[in-house]
Specification:
Strand content: over 45%
Helix content: under 10%
Shape: globular
Number of strands: 33
Number of helices: 2
Distance between the termini: 34 Å
């Protein structure tokens, strides 16, 4: 299908081959000439240049990615990417990965460019690591930084990247015991919302320490004791600062009757102590306590239906009705500082009712052993507020209405190829859906995929997205993705690609369009030599 020829070729077994006057052929048609060629000829990972990527972007102009892969050792590798852009200059990307004993691993990604359009250095880096010193002692880090607030709007590759408003960096040390867990760490947040002038009012947490006792029985009694406690130091340049110490001891009782009824009861007391300054409210030292508790009763019911229809032998239907009651003490907390919503617990009494259904199919298999597949998951739930107030991040809350939204969750897979999902909320007072989510996926198992998703929430998010992977016309594979805003009446993002795929090589032509960038790319994939780069590390 493809080949390289060279006038002279020197080969060192398990090392490299180098040659001069190389010509790359597709079939018998010469398509590329190079005065020099070098490629690995060993079975192990080898250092060397990867295939380049070519593209054109409304933000970058015409660009070329030239990656180089360095196999440092069996546990380390490094990929560098020279990113040449006609509109913004020349950038360098780095992707370093390592493995260590005891499953420890890490990755560093970075990108730096002198942006000729704004005449300054711009870049981004991320560092992720997991160090397992022992089964009970670990360190995890996730560091993310950018040189300026608009970096991702100019250099982000996907809608998730160029629309993000915060960059969060965390570092934690965790020590686990049989029944206890101790975590110490820090969290730094960089607010890159373009509507915010700077990061001075963004709240940072360091240090932050938590101690947890896993619920365990008290002696031989059916009563379980648990504890959640934490300390946080809050810092920022503008706004309230200080410390918060909290402790939440709690008791639980779990009991199952002989006829299958499950009973759970919990109670706890949340203690919080503050020392704050610099804010409009809550300055000084404060203490506060809140009582919380609840009970729940469920009764799982199960029945098996013999069908013997085609390969379907039987189905098992499991139904779990549940009713629960929860209470949080109502208390005025206006005198306390406000660092997060953990400083404003809403007092309420709530009754929740739910009905959960599972349907599982049992199928014949040519091997003789039966196969089981989940056919249906469906849950409907609603709450009734006896007193107090409530907060919901997804839907508007009317404290004058006692009934909460009816939540409908479902996943239906009538056939192996089809999946239908939903997670929606219906407001009985307004007689309309306050949030709606419906998804449909179909796969033929041979590379063709069709997907459609609809989402509406709070009358602020209202869009539909679709995807299509079409592998019906051999040797072409077509992929398409679109996200369309229904409320604004326009496309948010589209992606289309066409791949000409052979047994050991392929060519991919792709086009991506969003409200910030229009881009096309051309990628080459050669079996045994790797895949061309088309994006800098991000």
């Amino acid at each position: 299908s493809w080949k390289f020829t060279a006038n002279e070729l020197d080969i060192t077994v398990s090392d490299y081959a180098t040659g001069s006057d190389a010509v790359f052929y597709i079939k018998d048609v010469p398509v590329f000439y190079s005065p020099y060629i070098a490629f690995p000829v060993g079975r192990e990972r080898q250092s060397g240049f990867l295939l380049p990527g070519l593209g054109n972007s409304s933000k970058k102009g015409l660009y070329l990615d030239m990656p180089y892969y360095w196999a440092i050792s069996p546990s380390q590798d490094l990929t560098t990417d020279l990113d040449i852009q006609s509109k913004r200059g020349v950038g360098l990307g780095i992707d370093y990965r390592y493995l260590r004993p005891k499953d420890s691993d890490g990755q560093f990604k970075g990108y730096l460019i002198y942006d000729t359009e704004v005449n300054k250095e711009r870049g981004y880096f991320s560092l992720k690591g997991h160090e397992f010193f022992s089964p009970s002692l670990t360190i995890t880090s996730d560091m993310n930084m950018a040189t300026d607030r608009n970096y991702f709007r100019d250099y982000g590759e996907t809608i998730t990247e160029y629309n993000q408003l915060y960059l969060e960096s965390t570092f934690f040390i965790t020590k686990n015991y049989d029944l206890y867990s101790l975590v110490a760490g820090a969290r730094y947040v960089n607010n890159i919302d373009p509507t915010v002038l700077n990061n001075r009012a963004t709240l940072q947490q360091w240090p932050m320490v938590s101690f947890t006792k896993v619920k365990s029985p008290i002696g031989t009694t059916p009563i379980y004791f648990g504890l959640d406690s934490s300390f946080s130091n809050f810092q920022r340049d503008e706004g309230s600062q200080g410390q918060r110490i909290s402790a939440h001891p709690n008791l639980s009782v779990f009991y199952a009757t002989p006829n299958g009824i499950d009973f759970t009861a919990t109670s706890g007391y949340l203690l919080r102590n503050y020392s704050a300054y610099g804010g409009e409210i809550g300055n000084g030292t404060h203490g506060d306590g809140l009582f919380d508790g609840g009970v729940s009763i469920s009764a799982p019911l199960e029945r098996v239906y013999e069908l013997k229809k085609d390969d379907l032998i039987a189905v098992r239907h499991t139904m779990i009705p549940e009713i629960s009651y929860s209470i949080v003490q109502e208390k005025n907390q206006d005198r306390l500082p406000f660092f997060s919503y953990d400083d404003r617990f809403l007092g309420q009494e709530m009754v929740n009712v739910s009905l959960t259904n599972f349907v599982t199919g049992k199928y014949n298999d040519p091997s003789g052993s039966p196969l089981y597949r989940d056919l249906l998951y469906f849950k409907i739930s609603q709450g009734y507020q006896l007193s107090g107030s409530r907060r919901d991040l997804l839907t508007l809350v009317d404290d004058g209405q006692r009934f909460t939204d009816i939540r409908i969750e479902g996943r239906y897979t009538p056939f192996k190829q089809i999946s239908i999902t939903t997670d929606s909320r219906y407001n009985p007072n307004m007689t309309r859906f306050s949030t709606g989510s419906l998804g449909l996926d179909w796969k033929d198992g041979k590379g063709t995929v069709v997907g459609l998703n609809y989402l509406e929430s709070l009358d602020q998010v209202h869009y539909i997205e679709g995807k299509l992977d079409l592998a019906l016309i051999n040797p072409f594979v077509y992929k398409s993705y679109i996200r369309y805003s229904i409320d604004k009446g326009g496309k948010l993002e589209t992606f289309n690609s066409l791949e000409y795929k052979q047994q050991c090589w392929s060519v991919v032509l792709a086009y991506r369009e969003n409200n910030l960038d229009h881009r096309w790319t051309l990628n080459f994939n050669l079996s045994g030599l790797g895949t061309s780069a088309n994006n800098k590390p991000l």
